[in-house]
Amino acid sequence: MQKKQLIMEKALELFAEQGFEATSVQQITDHCGISKGAFYLSFKSKDELILSIIDHFMMEITADIDYLVKSSISNDKLLYTFYYSIFHAFHEKSDFAKVMLKEQLHSLNQELISKLHYYDQILDQAILYMIERLYGNSGAAIKYDLMYCIRGFMGTYSHLFFFYNFTVDLEALSRSLEEKTNLLAKHTTIPFISEELAELCKIAIPEELTKEKMIKSINQKIMELEESIEKESLVLLKEHLIKPVYSPAIVKGLLENIRNHPQCKWLSYLFSQYFGT
């Protein structure tokens, strides 16, 4: 495991137990079995570490959902799988989410707030894509309302993981929300959210993704990874980015090689957007 990833995972354990403020850098380094100097080579401060953990989680979940709704999974299973994947991710990170809600993220800076809005927009786009897949022209008039309803279900039912100490049946919850969503799609007749209103709710996205920025991100990740199929795939993807030589099928295979690696999910998403795969 890379040192940066180790610090994030071990710090997350302490934050969940003690909270942000009560956890010191010294405690984090002791828990990791590293020196303070090694910590500061990876993160400038505890606040930067906290922001990196939040950023990493949002990258993972948005990349996973975007891949899910654009994959070859059948439409009959798509909505159920969408909800199950979302709530499974919430369940996995529920301890950290409780800490964030309790401490109200007073350390957040404007850069991360903008990033969180950016991830929200990616999720919105993925949900709209899913709605179009599932309901086609029949759902066109209500797709933005339906998107807000789905986001509402995600937010409201996530409280089951964050505030109550009991086991949630993810399969039953996902089936229930699948049914509710289909009923709304079938019977809603008075849409409220128009495309114009939805556009007004958007914020400016970060700067356009360029080849130079992609190469910079790839180089950084290649340096971080140990020798592995993921690292080899990144090297080949970088070569293809500089001078396209591979077929779409090979590029797709290389992306599959890196997609499930926790440190490469976001790069996989960016590559997919850049190459249109």
TrEMBL record:
Keywords: DNA-binding, Repressor. InterPro entries: Homeodomain-like_sf (IPR009057), HTH-type_Tx_Regulator (IPR050624), HTH_TetR (IPR001647). Residues 1-61 form the HTH tetR-type domain. It comes from the Bacteria. It holds the Pfam family TetR_N. The keyword Cytoplasm does not apply. Residues 24-43 bind DNA. GO terms for molecular function: DNA binding. The keyword DNA-binding applies. This is TetR/AcrR family transcriptional regulator. The lineage of its organism: Bacteria, Bacillati, Bacillota, Bacilli, Bacillales.
